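Weekly puzzle thread! Below is a chain. First person to post its structure in token form gets bragging rights.
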Amino acid sequence: MNNSEKSIEINRVEEIIKKLDHKIELTKEEYKKAKDEVTRVQKNYSNNTSINYFEVDDRIETSADLQQQRGLVNKVVEDEAIVKRQLATYEELKSSPYFGRIDVIEENEKEALYIGIASFIDEKGQFLIHDWRAPISSIYYNGKLGNVSYQTPRGKQNVELTKKRQYQIKNGDIINMFDTNETVGDEMLQQALGDQNTQTMRNIVATIQNEQNDIIRDTKTDLLVVQGVAGSGKTSTILQRIAFLLYHSRDSLDADQIILFSPNLLFSHYISEVLPSLGEKNMRQVTLSEFLSHRLTGLNVQSIFSKYEENQVEKSDNEIITNFKNSQSFIDQINEYLQNLNYFDIQFNSILFRGQKYFDKHEIATIYQELPKDLKFDEKMLQTKNILIKKLKENIERNTEAEWIENEIENLSNEEYNELLGEDNINEELEFDEIHQIIAENIAKRELTSIYDAIYNNNLFDPYSQYIDFLKNISLPKEISKSQWDKSIQVFENNLEFHNINFEDTAPFIYLRDKFTGSGRNHSIQYLFIDEIQDYSISQIMYLKYAFPNAKFNLIGDSEQNIFSEVESADQLLKNLDNAISSKHARLISLNRSYRSTYPITNFAKNLLPHGEHIQPFNREGEIPKLYLSKNNEQMLNTLKKVIIDKQKEQETIAIITKSLTEAKELQKKLHREFNSILLTDEDRILPEKVIILPIYLAKGLEFDCIIGYNISKSNFTDLKSVGILYTIATRAMHDLTLISETEFSPLINQKIINEKLIQIKRTDN
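Winning reply:
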């Protein structure tokens, strides 16, 4: 690239920044007006609420006016948010206006297109920068010089790509610029991925690779499984996919119609700024434990982390039972059980009022039994509820002379009496019997609301007893004896006494309850994303498919990072999922190239795995991982302290990862005073910029400059069941990996690793 061409590019950046400065000033004015409008509308809404709410004659009209004003408030607040996001986008563009350029010839016309994180249009409507999600921008990621095509809403378009140029622009200055025929040149990747960790996930749309772009722009698949090795950018790719979908379907898709299941609260915060940095609202985020706990208010739902910790202390004898409850077969048996359930086996509850039976459970069972046989159980449940509500309304009209109502009337104050009569009737010339009837009906309606609520909320049905009945009538696999199963049922019943439910029972129980009652479904969600899919059971996925029936499923994970159960191949996982949730268009995409860690770290990590040959390390230089072997526990702790002191001089973020929370807590007691370390638990949402200690399951999806794996000893990492844990520890490190062991190191660090010197083993002295 000659000096003249470089000068042209530099001048263009300067010109774009001037125009962005002008646009930013205009947008700031627009934002101020939007804020002022929000203030004005909210004040008006507040005044109207306080003035008109108690004017009984205008209550209906006032309610409609307030609803209209509430809608206006929501609109101006959203308008303000849109302008605020636009302002943030323009300010980000000012620092780095674009990262790519493609020169194309289409219908004999030459055009140079510049690509950035968002579109920027001049006053004449000309695109100065094209959004990376625009159809033609896909050429930058997928196309090689020559004839290429790209998809548009009108179909496939063909063009000739004559140039692909990449830029690194920082604070308005071109740091690097070169022409390439690749997706993204290694030179750009080296610099972008070698930067120090900022404690939040970085949005690097400039470095999207061909296979990642394929995931991002897929609009047809309804079951997309992404198997990505550690550090392959799968989570970043999925977030960019969400941004693309919101851009592509902006007239029919809103961020509130997308839900992401995160592995933990730390991770949720870690990725929280990616979508806003791309000018989009954040989608809904929730952990599976949060979601299940919300669906079981009043019960203490065991988390997957608690289950893991429980298994670390005492290996469960019920692993086969847990695996059975996690399986498709278990959910299939629930469906079969419900389909063939006789009405006399349904566990109905009597509905009580003031300690007495208002609707007896036998009466409810009779209503259910008399409904047409060909109705589905959830439809019969709905009709049963409707009949009970109708009976309730009839009782309110008929039973106004009940003794309890008469007692209520006798004890009314004048104020309560007038309120129940209503201002519309106070000035009317009514007979005593008419007044008595009005007040009695209003008391009945008020007091019997609890009956209506009980019917509406399915309190006429006892799902716990029904689930126990199902457990007692299930067909057991040959691996499980009846005595083992009966013992597990007793455990479930005992847990209920203390308002607890085990992790493996939660999804099947809610599935049975909601399937029978026809409740618990969200039809508005269009896309459901799950990160760390390898940590989910098939029964949980089947429940989520029931709960979100219209959602396209996007499942992201790495089978090698399975720390809660044994590793399963990606192909087998897709097959199991496809069988379980019956998709029309299922697709598996594998990301095998790892970008997070240096070459030596990735090379060490891949060789921990029995079948890690498919992992392709990115060629970024760094030091070989080190393993310190100590003589005893005290020496191991002293070695750790020395390592921390050394790494604090070199690295910004240091994480000490343990196998369990118990181990992390013990370590925190010994390090806190000296290093001001911070222990992270599953309640934490923010990553502090200090020396942190955390159990392995909270490190999922995160990355740090330096990782110290603690107590990687033979006694702690005994067999292949721990390989996913050790692999996950190693692959959190971006620049530096240190392992510390006591007496003998884990046999997972195999002879091949030692022979090929993929790790440097050092023995420490007192």
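Puzzle host: Confirmed. Bonus trivia for everyone else. The first helix runs from residue 3 to 52.
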